[in-house]
């Protein structure tokens, strides 16, 4: 009789433990299948994928460079070309068009794409509007059940584990100290032993359920699957120039900049302002080559007419 009661109680507790695990498996498998179907139907445009990777400005800069709207010097400063200054010419996509407009606002001064990406308010507003518009086209992915973020459920789970552990110890003690009599009692004792062994594997079973039904980040994998076509079309030299301009966020700001050199010696000299400027600062001009105005040759003075 003791073995029968023990087998019944252990079986009930085992079913109570594995029932939620089986339900969790079923729910997570359904969510995983639905998530993969939704992501498989998504066809985001290249600029939206670049935006999700935080590479949209670099992709737009690459397109402007390849299309001949801008050129980038060895220091990462971007300049408009003749094509870029033509107001009738502009990219079809709104993101490179916004970047081109930002460069045009600073023309004829040099500006880096990194500074535009970090500090140009109008470009940031247009980029944010594009991100919101494109993000609205993405499907809302279902939430995977069984997460660890719910503190109440986590506390309840810890309490349940403690109770099951206490029950397991008591049931094991009763099973070991019992003296089965006859085949039936031995069978009940075997059932109880199998139930206790199953309870030992409950935590591992829950972990296996989460691992096998985890779908990872399918949308992120889709976003990272291929680079933007403009970035892929760059050669090595162009790629270095674009990355250098994107990485420069404070040097080329679209205005002539006074760059101080040997600032620690600036207050020691007693020379005049002109000499201080000559020694301590230099001006970065808008263009690398700015031709100086040259006066045309004066006409030779005419010979006064002879009086005869």
Helix content: 55-70%
Structural class designation: mainly alpha
H-E string: HHHEEHHHHHHHHHHEHE
Query: Averaging pLDDT over every residue, what do you get?
Result: 79
Please state roughly what percent of the residues sit in beta strands, choosing from under 5%, 5-15%, 15-25%, 25-35%, 35-45% or over 45%: under 5%
Low-confidence stretches: 256-308
Supply the number of helical segments. Answer: 14
Note the main attributes of this structure:
308 residues; mainly alpha; two-stranded antiparallel sheet; 14 helices; 4 strands; 5% strand; rod-shaped; disordered C terminus
Characterize this entry briefly.
The chain is mainly alpha-helical and 308 residues long.
What do these coordinates show?
With 308 residues, the protein is mostly helical. The chain has 3 domains: 2-41 and 145-213; 47-138 and 223-247, no CATH class; 256-289, no CATH class. Helix content is 60%, strand content 5%. The protein has 14 helices and 4 strands. It has helices at 2-40, 46-52, 56-67, 82-85, 94-106, 113-119, 121-135, 151-177, 182-200, 202-213, 218-223, 229-233, 236-247, 273-280; strands at 70-72, 78-80, 257-260, 281-284. The strands form 2 sheets. The chain has a two-stranded antiparallel sheet with strand order 1-2. α6 packs parallel to α13 (236-247). The chain is rod-shaped, with a radius of gyration of 37 Å. It starts with a helix and ends in a 24-residue tail after the last strand.
């Amino acid at each position: 009789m003791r073995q029968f009661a023990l087998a019944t109680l252990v079986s009930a507790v085992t079913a109570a433990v594995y029932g939620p695990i089986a339900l969790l498996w079923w729910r997570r498998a359904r969510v995983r299948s639905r998530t993969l179907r939704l992501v498989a139907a998504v066809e985001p445009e290249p600029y939206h994928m670049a935006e999700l990777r935080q590479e949209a400005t670099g992709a737009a800069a690459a397109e402007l460079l390849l299309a001949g709207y801008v050129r980038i010097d060895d220091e990462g400063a971007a300049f408009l070309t003749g094509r870029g200054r033509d107001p009738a010419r502009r990219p079809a996509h709104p993101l490179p068009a916004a970047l081109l407009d930002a460069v045009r606002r600073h023309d004829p001064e040099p500006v880096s794409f990194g500074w535009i990406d970090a500090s140009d308010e109008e470009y940031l507003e247009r980029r944010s509007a594009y991100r919101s518009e494109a993000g609205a086209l993405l499907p809302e992915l279902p939430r995977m059940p069984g997460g660890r973020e719910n503190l109440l459920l986590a506390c309840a789970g810890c309490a349940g584990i403690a109770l099951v552990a206490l029950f397991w110890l008591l049931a094991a003690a009763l099973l070991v100290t019992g003296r089965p009599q006859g085949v039936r009692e031995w069978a009940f004792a075997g059932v109880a032993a199998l139930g206790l062994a199953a309870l030992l594997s409950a935590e591992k079973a829950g972990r296996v359920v989460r691992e096998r039904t985890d779908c990872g980040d399918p949308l992120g994998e889709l976003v990272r699957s291929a680079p933007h076509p403009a970035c892929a079309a760059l050669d090595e030299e162009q790629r270095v120039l674009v990355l250098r301009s994107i990485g420069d966020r404070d040097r080329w700001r679209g205005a002539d900049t006074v760059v101080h050199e040997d600032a620690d010696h600036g207050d020691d000299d007693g020379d005049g302002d002109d000499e201080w400027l000559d020694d301590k600062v230099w001006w970065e001009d808008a263009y690398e080559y700015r031709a100086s105005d040259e006066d045309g040759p004066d006409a030779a003075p005419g010979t006064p007419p002879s009086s005869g």
